[in-house]
């Protein structure tokens, strides 16, 4: 297989209706933990099959067992975190925000079992998916620590331990997402320190997905983040940040988002190819990965599949034009 | 020394109390109930949150902004010249609003908040403050294609929102509160803010307050004292530098003292509240203080918000004894 222009996804997949229904029933106490877990595994198997069928190179397990990327971990850190009452996020949407209530410490594997199950279903590598320490803290209330720094660094210890467990289980790619990173440019140093703790000593390839922000302001710090690969959105900002890459070369790998996950509209193969070509103008193909802008969980199953098919087709055609085998 | 709130209040309680407004909005969106029925639930919830504030010991309440989706679109949807775009993050919070887009000349059509004020005032045993999103902040949090400069848009909005302030004054609002958090993020625009608010408030005789949050007024003091308001509200939680600023000169207006963290569930102690009040007591006389949370309370679960207000009122009572 030619190295370069490998395809992947950011992490989440849409939950099938039967799983959404089961999650509701579980929260109402109508079905048990075991029954829900069985359906989560069923959906995970479907996510893996879909990615294999579409022909992606590096797979994800789809996060069928997670509702919210912060609350999932908070609920398992029972000794140091709790879940609050409802807080509005926008419109008529509410969520339960986690609360740090004690000293953060790792209590046991949180993601390994599901990763192992998903990896057991495929020969392609499946990424281990973690939420970064800065985002974990920023999106939680804090009733224990006096400083954000202390909280982030202790949380980083927890996530580091989890990353080590994933690596021990055989994960070759470990993604640590920090979507909160770009909201407060003045705290980018703290984001970086947290990630440095998480990735220290890992041999697996480390990835961080960063989104929703003004990249230009924090560009220098983002390209210095202590991970091997940056996963960034580009399609929904018309590839503006490629211009930054051109002016400030750096040596990390980049996973470039080429389909907009917040838009129902299906991109054409031609426009995705154009995005890939623009990526290739500033990054060598062995350092360029191709994926959607962000997690796919806000799309329907059919929309997600259609966008990924277009993306994979575009990559095949670009490779063909470059004389590379797919 | 009076207690007040900055503006919004959590719209739904937690179990076992029912989330009636959330259910009603969902039913309205599915077309199962009409506007009148939704309005009825909004009315009931407004009364409920006014009672919760009064019960907690708040002297000057708001209607909780129960009918507001957010500070921007509540005005933008009801004025000419705006369309509403996609979701965007509100400052550095994990809360989103739909971003208004200015696509034509902005124009005030009819009162936006006057009926809300009247309803709240008729159902409150305490005075009700009327919040208005300021022209600078509304412009800063919108996109604009229509005006040739940002400054022009701000001044146009100031002229139009002036109609809202005058309408609230005619309705008898005892305090009109103009909110301008965005100026703390671009302090170099202060001359523009000054001009806009000057035009907006010209000839207004009702008591008017200006509130900011999510930062400090370092660099804007003492100029803020020139603004046409009798009180200025500051956030001392996300803007701890405000304590230093106040040491630099006499604060010749009343001060909205935002010392209760409205973005974290950790409950302040009475001692902390007294201590924070004492820290500003050299610069501002106790009778010139409005003690309030650092910003609107919607970042908190409803029960925590009320507990914080009750604790705040307790802290203020203790401070009054200590400072006497
Ligand atoms: Zn993202």
Task: Explain how this protein is built.
- The complex is a heterodimer of chains A (326) and B (324).
- Chain A is α/β, with parallel strands linked by helices.
- Helix content of chain A is 43%, strand content 16%.
- Chain A has helices at 17-27, 33-54, 71-76, 112-119, 133-138, 148-169, 188-199, 215-223, 240-247, 269-282, 301-321, and strands at 6-7, 81-90, 93-100, 128-131, 141-142, 173-177, 205-210, 229-233, 253-257, 288-291.
- In chain A, the strands form two sheets. Chain A has a seven-stranded parallel beta sheet with strand order 1-10-9-8-7-6-4. A three-stranded mixed beta sheet of chain A has the order 2-3-5.
- In chain A, helix 1 packs antiparallel against helix 2 (33-54), helix 9 (240-247) runs parallel beside helix 10 and helix 10 packs across helix 11.
- Helices cover 38% and strands 19% of the residues of chain B.
- In chain B, strand 8 (231-235), helix 8 and strand 9 (254-260) form a beta-alpha-beta unit.
- Chain B is globular, with a radius of gyration of 19 Å.
- The structure holds zinc ion.
- Zinc ion binds next to loops of chain A.
